[in-house]
């Protein structure tokens, strides 16, 4: 039951996909659904290369116009090839990518 005296706060969605888990497309599809069907403001945050990949894979590019994309300033990092048959299942080739995220210490400011 809706309380008529309750003031609802505005809702904003911040979508931050985790590329190592292949969340780029799924997060973009969810963002498109929330922005188009529910008219929610959606901010999709990631590195410029990952945002570009997600946009190129979008089956309905018109829906992208309702989403605000924000590039995180991630410095370049080495990208070694994966090693198969190692002693551990840890994806060591992704470690430089994880380490580069340690540079994201500053607050993210909205575009002016």
From TrEMBL:
InterPro entries: Glyco_transf_N. One of its GO terms (biological process) is carbohydrate derivative metabolic process. It holds the Pfam family Glyco_transf_N. Signal peptide: none annotated. Residues 10-108 form the Glycosyltransferase N-terminal domain. Coiled coil: none annotated. GO terms for molecular function: UDP-glycosyltransferase activity. Belongs to the UDP-glycosyltransferase family. This is Glycosyltransferase N-terminal domain-containing protein.
């Amino acid at each position: 039951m809706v309380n008529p005296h309750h003031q609802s706060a505005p809702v904003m969605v911040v979508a931050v996909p985790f590329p190592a888990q292949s969340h780029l497309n799924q997060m973009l599809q969810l963002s498109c659904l929330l922005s188009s069907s529910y008219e929610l403001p959606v901010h999709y945050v990631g590195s410029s290369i990952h945002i570009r990949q997600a946009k190129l894979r979008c089956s309905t590019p018109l829906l992208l116009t309702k989403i605000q994309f924000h590039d995180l300033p991630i410095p370049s990092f080495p990208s070694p090839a994966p090693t198969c048959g190692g002693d551990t299942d840890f994806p060591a080739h992704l470690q430089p990518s994880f380490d580069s995220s340690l540079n994201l210490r500053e607050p993210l400011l909205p575009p002016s």
